[in-house]
Design brief:
The complex is a heterotrimer of chains A (92), B (395) and C (287). Chain B is 36% helix and 21% strand. By secondary structure, chain B is α/β, with parallel strands linked by helices. The N and C termini of chain B lie far apart (51 Å). Chain C has a single domain, classed as 3-Layer(aba) Sandwich (Rossmann fold). Chain C is 30% helix and 16% strand. In chain C, strands 3-2-4-5-7-6-9-8 form an 8-stranded mixed sheet, sandwiched between helices. The chains are: A alpha+beta (92), B alpha/beta (395), C alpha/beta (287). Chains B and C meet through helix 3, helix 5 and strand 10 of B and strand 3, helix 2 and helix 4 of C.
Chain lengths: 92, 395, 287
């Protein structure tokens, strides 16, 4: 299986462990375009949206094709300085 | 040993000690301070007595910390006090404004000494009067008492605590080294005879107090305390009725006016003074603190010499008893303001009279000799023509 | 899973003053991240929110108290610690956190910092270190590295900065830690550990200040400084305290970890033992 993340090695038990799924929620008008979530998502799920919020910032959106890739690691939730993004675990 | 909070009885007591006992009688539970002559005895007495009555004494690392600590303690619900002298009072100035802005009841005792700067640490002065009102930056009102006896060191400290609680403002006691270090009879009443006022408290539960800094007619908001669930945000920045910082000129003007008006409008309830022989006086001496004791003697000497002289003794220096000066003005030929500084209360007298204002002044170091006041009275009695004369200190 | 969903509220809004969001901090500033870790640690602490109090000083970090829905006090510059001292002595049931910046706590507030640590006052101190005075436009401070450009060190700063973990350990703090704001998991865990301890606890958190410090010192935007932390932060709790200096140069290391985790009687413990024991009966608090 291809290594899904540049941050971790391929785990030995990857075939046996259920990887969670997450749903991304955003509050676009709180975003200030810092890119913390985009750069540090281990699955590279996020990208800058083509559109801007009311302050002119490009808030994060899910990359096309990456809709199933969020593993609800929670990193974007905790790294965001603006309380503008979080994930919730969903059934796969 | 545990001891009673109120030492009811007749005592032969030092002024500083009487001040400390007055604080305890008023319900003081927290003292944070720094030793400085001539106020150290207050700290020493409270270091001994506060643990006996379930209170707390902490000696902080400097006066800035002391003032900050008593405001924090006040917001946790304590009746808090500090004591200092001129140099420490200067260090407390920024946080005096913080107490005003946060509307924190607290008492600051300044036992004045020879100033400016290090000055005369062990000898008296009265040079910090204006500083109490104008020393912190910005417009604020202060309540400041000038005890003239050891008994008043007790009584006016009780009053100070009560006023602080009612008006949610810092209250200053502008004593001087003579009154602080002298020993006189002090009568402490039974505990049940001592009035203890409490700060206004919220009457609604936390989720209903949406505007913690909104006030009614008296301009004094109710005061929650930390830990009660009100989740209040208390700001040193200009804030609106929610307590949130707002950088708008209208909000700022409204807030600053309310903080000032809550004291100004209550002038009749706060101002205190004493009059001696002013009914027929042609010259009125104005004196406070230990200087009032010299002035009383000078007034008696003047009367014996046939001069019609009286004494106005402000007991609150702030608010200054302006209405008394205004009332006396039409009937007198001159005022003589006797103070151990180069003319501070004299400026307040001048503002409210068109009569000549003479100054019996000395920079400090000893009680003012009554002869100095008497010679000033004689000059006023002799020369005052009823028309306004430029203020010129004598002595 | 569908694409991102747009919503109007965030799970942490229950403990934030959401009516004041978005906060005033710059894009790329790390303060919001630190605040989030603290909010989560508060919620996980098991201590009722009504007992939590946050005291802030002046500066960007000092605005933190204003965004948390607990009793908060925004005090004068440098005086958050003595203010908090008065609170916690008058009511020892309060769980008081001082949340302030490197300038407020260590320069103007330095005297209070060392004395509160000496006394082992029961206070949790979060010191966000962004190496400058950000709120006022990026002036030098007591943690500004040698050679750094700030608005008041246009030739490069010529003084040596404080090594904060070493300073606090020397003053007697019972808990001393450092993380960057990229170390969100460790930071939250450390803040939670701090809530379980008593005495003077100090957590230094490095955060980007792109406007005041990052851009003038080749650290780029906030995201660039976060990558700097990623590359150059090491975890070494056993490191000697003298080795914990930070230069923020391209080849330098930032050593993180919990360096001191010990126990010592607190200020009030000693007060009860030495003072109240001599006074029969004896109460504790002052309120």
């Amino acid at each position: 299986m291809a290594n899904p993340s540049p941050f971790v090695r391929t785990p030995l038990n990857v075939g046996r462990v259920r990887i969670p799924s997450g749903q991304v929620f955003i509050l676009p008008d709180r975003c200030k375009g810092c890119r913390f979530c985009i750069d540090f998502c281990p699955r590279e799920v996020l990208m800058e949206s083509p559109s801007m919020n009311s302050k002119g910032y490009h808030y994060p959106v899910v990359r096309p094709g990456k809709e199933e890739d969020c593993v609800h690691c929670g990193f974007c939730t905790v790294i965001c300085p603006e309380f503008a993004i979080y994930t919730v675990e969903v059934s796969p | 040993m545990k001891a009673p909070r109120v030492l009811t009885g007749r005592h032969f007591m030092m002024g500083d000690v009487a001040c400390a006992e007055g604080a305890l009688a008023a319900g003081c539970t927290f003292f944070a301070g720094y030793p400085i002559t001539p106020s150290t005895e207050i700290a020493e007495r409270l270091a001994l007595r506060l643990p006996q009555v379930g209170g707390h004494y902490i000696q902080m690392e400097d006066e800035l910390a002391s003032m900050a600590a008593i405001i924090g303690a006040s917001w946790a619900g304590a009746k808090a006090m500090t004591a200092t002298s001129g140099p420490g009072f200067s260090l407390m100035m920024e946080n005096l404004g913080l107490a005003v802005m946060m509307e924190a009841p607290c008492v600051v005792v300044n036992v004045q000494r020879g100033s400016p700067s290090t000055g005369l640490p062990t000898l008296t002065g009265q040079g910090d009067v204006m500083q109490a009102k104008w020393g912190s930056h910005g417009d604020y009102e202060i309540i400041a008492y000038a005890p003239a006896t050891c008994q008043e060191m007790f009584d006016l400290t009780v009053r100070a605590f009560n006023m602080a609680e009612r008006f949610r403002n810092p209250v200053v006691i502008l004593a001087d080294e003579v009154v602080g270090h002298m020993t006189e009879r002090v009568v402490i009443p039974p505990e049940e005879a001592i009035e203890r006022w409490e700060r206004p408290r919220p009457t609604v539960p936390p989720h209903e107090l949406l505007f913690p800094f909104a006030a009614d007619q008296d301009l004094i908001p109710p005061m929650p305390r930390a830990g009660e669930g009100y989740r209040i945000y208390v700001e040193s920045l200009t804030h609106d009725e929610r307590g949130y910082p707002v950088m708008h000129p209208d909000v700022h003007d409204r807030l600053v006016r309310r903080l000032n008006d809550k004291i100004r409008r209550a002038y009749p309830q706060i101002v205190e003074y004493e009059l001696l022989d002013t009914e027929d006086a042609e010259v009125v001496v104005v004196a406070y603190g230990s200087t009032a004791r010299s002035a009383r003697h000078a007034v008696r000497q003047a009367r014996k010499a046939g001069m019609r002289v009286g004494l106005l003794r402000p007991m609150t220096l702030w608010p200054f008893p302006a209405h008394v000066v205004e009332q006396l003005s039409p009937r007198v030929r001159a005022f003589v303001v006797a103070e151990l500084n180069l003319g501070q209360v004299a400026r307040e007298v001048e503002r409210f009279t068109d009569r000549p204002v003479y100054g019996a002044n000395h920079a400090g170091g000893a009680m003012m000799p009554p002869e100095l006041i008497l010679s000033c009275v004689e000059e006023a009695y002799r020369d005052a023509q009823g028309s306004r004369r430029r203020f010129a200190p004598v002595g | 899973m569908p694409r991102e969903a747009v919503v109007a509220s965030h799970p942490l809004d229950e403990v934030l003053r959401e009516d004041r969001l978005p906060h005033i901090w710059c894009p790329g500033c790390g303060l919001g991240t630190v605040l989030g870790c603290f909010a989560r640690a508060m919620l996980a602490s098991g201590i009722p929110l009504d007992r939590h109090v946050v005291v802030s000083g002046i500066g960007c970090t000092g605005r933190a108290a204003g965004y948390l829905k607990v009793d908060g006090f925004h005090t004068t510059h440098g005086r958050a610690i003595p203010f908090a001292t008065g609170l916690v002595i008058a009511n020892p049931d309060l769980v008081v956190t001082v949340f302030s910046g490197d300038g407020d706590l260590v320069a103007i507030g330095g005297n209070h910092l060392i004395h509160a640590a000496r006394r082992n006052m029961d206070l949790n101190v979060i010191c966000v270190n962004n190496f400058n005075y950000g709120m006022t436009g990026g002036q030098l401070g007591p943690t500004t590295p040698v050679g750094a450009i700030t608005t008041t060190s246009p030739y490069g700063f010529h003084e040596e900065p404080f090594n904060l973990p070493r300073l606090l350990a020397a003053c007697g703090a019972v808990f001393v830690a450092r993380w960057t704001c990229l170390h969100v998991r460790q930071l939250e865990a450390t803040m939670l550990r701090s809530f379980q301890k008593r005495g003077f606890r100090f957590i230094e958190v490095l955060a980007p200040c792109p406007v005041g410090f990052g851009r003038p010192n080749d650290l780029g935007e906030g995201i660039d400084e976060m990558w700097f932390y990623r590359r150059q932060a090491d975890y070494d709790p056993q490191a000697a305290l003298e080795m914990l200096e930070i230069s923020m140069r391209k080849d330098s290391r930032i050593i993180c970890g919990v360096f001191v985790d010990t126990e010592r009687p607190t200020y009030l413990d000693r007060y009860r033992e030495h003072v109240l024991r001599k006074v029969e009966g004896g109460g504790t608090g002052a309120a």
